[in-house]
Amino acid sequence: MYRQVEQPPTPPENFELPFEGKLSPDNRWVIMANLIPWSEFEEEYAQNFSEEMGAPAKSFRIALGALIIKEKLGTSDRETVEQIRENPYLQYFLGMSSYSNEAPFEASMLVHFRQRIRSDLVNQVNRKMVSESTDSEEEQRAPIKLDKTGQAFC
């Protein structure tokens, strides 16, 4: 059975968000953003640029993050930028501190990102993520040691 209910359209500024304006820490993009050691690879990425010439480049996190988003969503360059523009979780993943309805870069920048981030750098990031994930799991499984008074120690 279907009953048609007349509802006036809700203006976008009155649309209620279920997370009360906060991002959910269990969202897949939030979790992945925290797994990637962005800063460890920034210097290697920066070697692609001159310190004196040209416009300031996008950060390593934006560049690699955009390529990861494109790959995971299976979208075109233009659609990737549009998804980022519309989605606060994707913007958080790229390291933005607040939501913006503006695209953070033109779709053509993805071509440059692909040229500057070589597969060996992506492989290094992957290995580091796996290594840190394995280390974290081992720490969680390590038995807790107690001293004579029953206090835990490492």
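Second entry:
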Amino acid sequence: MIKCYKMKNKIIWLLDFWGDYYPIILAFFSFLYSVSLWFSGQKLEGIFVGIWVPSILGFSVAIRQRRRDREKRISK
């Protein structure tokens, strides 16, 4: 029973962590992919994928702002 409880807490923690930091993780992987493309000789493709990083972070900020606005409206 105790192992099940610990496993459940770890899963909950992991889901909370992913929910908070998924845009940063995705942007980091996009950055790594962009750098790997650049140094493999595909410079144009590397630049294109590099543009994804600020787009991912910008969309995540917009989504979180909309979510906060909706929560404020609902709580009133």
